[in-house]
Amino acid sequence: MTVGQHTPRLEAVALAIPPEDVVLDRRGVIHNDVLRHSAHLHTANFTAIHTADLRRLFALYDQYCFEHHCQQTLGTTPLEFRLSTRMTKAGGATTRYRTHTGGVRYEIAIACGLLFESFGTQDRTITVCGLVCTTRLEALQRIVEHELVHLIEYLCWGVSDCSKERFQQIARAQFLHKAHTHQLITRRERAANAGIRPGHPVTFTFEGRSYAGIVNRITKRATVLVEDPTGQPFSDGRRYRTFYVPIELLHPSRKHEKNADNLV
């Protein structure tokens, strides 16, 4: 099967406007199917996930929402799924790659780290795509829905941009999305709630020794700069040793803050 053979049909299905009750019904059917059949997602606030779960979600959405036309349009073109613990801002990403032979492959990556950071018992309300999500599975579904619209735009029109009207029209009609962003809890927010921010002084223990430094960046871990005459020179004219410290091991210090964010 050649790529693009069913593109006109996929376009028509994607641009259709199903009734709201139909959208809500198929959302629930997919949710329940995943919980019944997944080997990893045993509860809506799952604690483990596998790429097989992403592939199953894709297949279910393709079946119930797009009449299998996503897979038919892909044909033999590879679609890969990846779980990322390094994505700290975006909830997901859909990428089209060109091979050295001129072929194409697609990848959908989901920020599982953000999902696991969120939905603690004392956490604030979470919204994804403008919709309140009370469980990780609800948030995962909203992210997968968003990435599916990216994939459909790539397959049908060759480009995809979630800030554009066509993307948002499809997302509204097919999934009732109200926005194209998420409000999952990031490591940076979690750290800020604990009083740890870029530019703030902190203390920590490493290999039995206590250190005091300045938080420079916060991603999966905090980058902490500890002033040391034998360290590397930075843009403020001082020398620092760099430590990558899990946020939960840092303690805010009362020392004077400085603008250390993004020192290089």
Topology diagram in text:
Elements lengths: L6 H8 L5 H18 L13 H16 L2 H6 L4 E6 L7 E7 L5 E8 H6 L8 E3 L2 E3 L2 H22 L7 H11 L11 H7 L7 E6 L2 E10 L3 E12 L5 E7 L5 E2 L12
Parallel strand pairs: 1-3
Antiparallel strand pairs: 2-3, 4-5, 6-7, 6-10, 7-8, 8-9
Helix pairs in contact: 1-6, 2-3, 3-6, 6-7
Can you describe this structure?
The chain has 264 residues and is α+β, with helices and mostly antiparallel strands. The chain folds into two domains: 7-185, no CATH class; 189-252, SH3 type barrels (Roll), CATH 2.30.30. 36% of the residues lie in helices and 24% in strands. The protein has eight helices and ten strands. It has helices spanning 7-14, 20-37, 51-66, 69-74, 112-117, 136-157, 165-175, 187-193; strands spanning 79-84, 92-98, 104-111, 126-128, 131-133, 201-206, 209-218, 222-233, 239-245, 251-252. The chain has a five-stranded antiparallel beta sheet. The chain has a three-stranded mixed beta sheet with strand order 1-3-2. The protein has a two-stranded antiparallel sheet with strand order 4-5. Helix 1 packs across helix 6 and helix 3 (51-66) packs across helix 6 (136-157). It is elongated and about 65 Å long. It starts with 6 loop residues before the first helix and ends in a 12-residue tail after the last strand. The model has no long low-confidence stretch (mean pLDDT 91).
Return the structural class.
alpha+beta
The averaged pLDDT comes out at 91
Q: In what order do the strands lie side by side in the largest sheet? A: 9-8-7-6-10
- Strand segment count: 10
Distance between the termini: 51 Å
Low-confidence stretches: none
SSE ordering: HHHHEEEHEEHHHEEEEE
- Fraction of helical residues: 25-40%
